[in-house]
Design goal:
There is one protein chain. The protein has 307 residues and is of the alpha/beta class. It has 2 domains: 211 residues, Spore Coat Polysaccharide Biosynthesis Protein SpsA, Chain A (Alpha-Beta Complex); 70 residues. Helix 2 links the parallel strand 2 and strand 3. Helix 5 runs parallel beside helix 8 and helix 9 packs antiparallel against helix 10.
Length: 307
């Protein structure tokens, strides 16, 4: 069986097109499939549109979450419920074309890959393009995960890779990083990411920054290294300044005033605040993991037998 996992949040205007294109794309290479839509606490008519689609396409299943838990949590809900030997992840805004699934599936079956991801070689539309590209390039550099550049959620995993990802139980999740972390034989298919078909984009600059912070703090020691670097530079600078002050005092040409003192205090205080912020981010993540709360809660699962 082939499982396609699609989280949706307030996508009522796209549901009909999304379902029909996804069904057509899957039926081009398999007849044994399921499509799991995860309704991530939508406040519009997304759930009603999905229920209507189920009447026409019985292989559509719906996981209705109790509230909005976020994109990565919604994907996790779908992956855990998926029954397929192959599980695909795709965003619900049609920027990732479902028609590409056939090529990705062929590659994973015929070339022996465990995971095949969609690699973006370009993007239509200008919104957040620079910020997104900058994040992917920066994350690849600091995380050490070399296959991460321009690769998002769009991917197909075989059952062994899915089971490996399901063993990772952290609450704060970045699935592309987790997918890269588990290893296995990974390939990719290049494509140009489409602009959004209809509706308002769900990924804002603030959400991208939060996602980027989760990714970097979860998979990189870069923030700690920055703190160490700044602390070392600060120590060297003020060690040299201290020697200069002693020499100046000894030879009697020390310059009296408050400017150097105030600047020194501000400089050291700023470094300390940066350190506290970085440590606070790690402490917050430790706290969230120690709570051991569910990643998501299901209100109702509309499977093949549920009306």
């Amino acid at each position: 069986m082939f499982s396609l996992v699609i989280p949706v949040y307030n996508e009522e205007c796209l549901i009909q097109e999304l379902v029909s294109r996804s069904v057509k794309a899957l039926e081009s290479f398999t007849k044994n499939y399921e499509i799991l839509f995860i309704n991530d606490g939508s406040t519009d008519d997304t759930l009603e549109k999905l229920l209507e689609a189920r009447k026409q396409f019985p292989r559509v299943k719906i996981i209705d979450l109790s509230r909005n838990f976020g994109h990565q949590a919604a994907f996790t809900a779908g992956i855990e419920a998926a029954l397929g030997n192959y599980v695909a992840m795709m965003d619900g805004d049609l920027q990732d074309p479902p028609e590409l699934l056939a090529e990705m599936y062929q590659k994973i079956r015929e070339e022996g890959f465990d995971i095949v991801s969609g690699k973006r070689k370009g993007r239509k539309g200008k919104r957040l393009r620079f910020a997104t590209n900058l994040f992917h390039a920066f994350f690849k550099k600091v995380s050490g995960l070399e296959d991460m550049e321009n690769s998002g959620n769009f991917s197909i995993l075989n059952r062994a890779a899915v089971n490996a990802m399901l063993q990772m139980k952290e609450t704060i999740r970045y699935l592309p990083g987790m997918r890269s972390f588990i290893g296995f034989k990974q390939g990719y298919v290049e494509y140009v990411r489409e602009d959004r078909l209809e509706g308002e984009p769900k990924m804002t600059l603030s959400k991208l920054i939060v996602l980027g912070a989760d990714a970097i703090f979860s998979f990189s020691k870069f923030p700690i290294k920055v703190c160490l670097f700044l602390g070392t530079i600060g120590t060297i600078v003020f060690f040299v300044a201290g020697i200069y002050a002693l020499v100046a005092k000894f030879f009697g040409f020390a310059i009296f005033g408050w400017s150097s003192t105030v600047l020194s205090i501000y400089f050291l205080g700023s470094i300390q605040l940066i350190f506290l912020g970085v440590v606070g981010e790690y402490v917050y993540r430790i706290y969230k993991e120690s709570q051991n709360r569910p990643i998501y809660l299901v209100k109702k699962f509309y499977d093949a037998e549920t009306e």
